[in-house]
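Action item from last week, closing it out:
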Amino acid sequence: MGRSTNPLPRWLSTVLWGNTVALSWMWGLGLFFSVQFTTQFGLFGLLTFAIPNFLGLMAFGLATQQIANRQKGKGSEALASFFVNWSRPFRLIFFLYQILAITLTIFAIIHYVWQPLNLQPQALYLPLTLLVVLAAAVLFGEEFNIKRIKFSHGLLFLLLAAAIVVIVIGAPALPPASQTTLPKLPVSDWNFWGYVVPICIGFLAGPWLDLQQWQRAIQMHRERVSIGWGYVFGSVEFFALLLFHGGLTLWAQGLGASVFIRHGIAGYTYAQDMLMQFFFHNAVAHPVVFIAYCVFVCVCILTTLDSGYIAFRWFLQSNVNMSNNAIFSLIPNRLVTSPIPIMLVCGVFALTAAVLGLELEYFMIFFATFLVGYEVLGIARCYVFSPANAIPQVKMFCIGSVAVVIFAFGYFLRQPVLQIIGSMLPLGYVVWLLVKPTSAEEFVSNADELESPADSGAVLPSDSSELASIPPSSGAHPVAAAAAAFGIHDLTGHFEGKWFVHSFVATYADTNSVGNVYFGMYAMWVGKTRELFFNKVMPKFNLKDTSFYILTRSFEHKFVRETREFETVSVRIKIASFNRKFVTLEHEIYDSHEHLLGKGRQSLLFVSSADYHMLDIPQDVHAAFLVHT
């Protein structure tokens, strides 16, 4: 294990990391929906919103600490190594989650901070506001990477704390806006639970698909900072910020701020911009308090957007070399890995939504329904073994889409039961996926191709009790172990874990003049085993109509021990690694006594069958190989 390079005392690093955790989670959803829910249901509503949010964030930190601890022998890279493998089938949903979160946050600052100022013409001011927001996010994201973000957010928190102090001291001097009061909605009917159930489900599982939180947890572990304690501190700070903003809402309502509540679709009232309207109403007489509130909101938004920029860059740089899509080979690498185009797209969508008058709840629907299934499945995959790094993407997408529609009908038709069903449907479906008898088949991509070569032609004893008495071989497939015990071998090879194994008997033709196996035969055996491996995982590959060829880029072998004729030899091959262009295979050769005869590796590349131009890894190869990595 390497020594930490962190020069700060561990307790200070824990506090700084906890602070950036809190600020990065204080995004548009938590910041403004706390106002909305408090306005509707009072202090009880605020606590109902804040507590699941707080618990979900803290639970994520404690769980990732436990996951990192169980990765033995990997030191400071334990969590990073786990994330690479665990996140592989979720890469697209990670990307979509982050896009939605950034879009929502930009939308919130435009719609609930800037538009209430009602500066005209909006066609001029709104695009300029968007450019300022994006420029600030890009500037801070470029200036401070994940290693330095705890320092920038530490300074921004001081600014945030100063703004809170100014608000607390100056707010009591503000005069009432009106005598209007809005009675709180009851917390004992279905309408309340139509919100509470989605809030609890969405926020308890929400951090698991947030790239910002994973990046923080990984970096904390690299710096030997306790992820658990960092997230405990961060979640407590986040909870305190939510309580402050919600308490400010209750105080403003007592001064008649309810007059600024708007009415929208389906007769709903929207109060997300109520505080901004209230402080702006008193800006002439009390400009310092108004500016302080603007600073508070802007710091919360900025610390989310710069975190999102850094997380996007990390995600793109980490995954671009893993892509098998040829389009990326035509685009400059700096453009592919730059978050700026994505941020611009998010900004355009956010601006369009603000102009159309959409509300925060329309974005929230996806976090309470569509993403829930992926989040719960991701949590389960941290603790439940699945046979391959694949998930039933089409089914998950369909069930998520159905959940969105059901929830939307419930929201617009004021049927809270439908909102509850929409949120619980993905959760229930994932539970069913994990426990149903054929669950293993759901997590293997291209199952029809993988199953087709399963019939090896070997005949096993029909007496199940006879098979049950055979001690299982360590790491071997049960069928292969049973066959070997009876002297029956699969002529086409079989899998033992990640290794593809081909066994045979060396004969006179494999030896040289002195009786030991000729050195060149080892490479021939490896080549034959490789071909059998290809045939096993890609049984439908046909040289007559293939669009690509698989070529050997390099081959190396280390000779360890000799063997002779009539010795049983086993050649084992597995996929060691791959990127956009190349696949690396490792091989080991053993005799019947499990003595290592030799080992090595080879690199494969792929070319077009038409012109021999080099290709990215073809989709067919990627899908077939991915199951065995």
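Closing note: The first strand starts at residue 262 and ends at 263.
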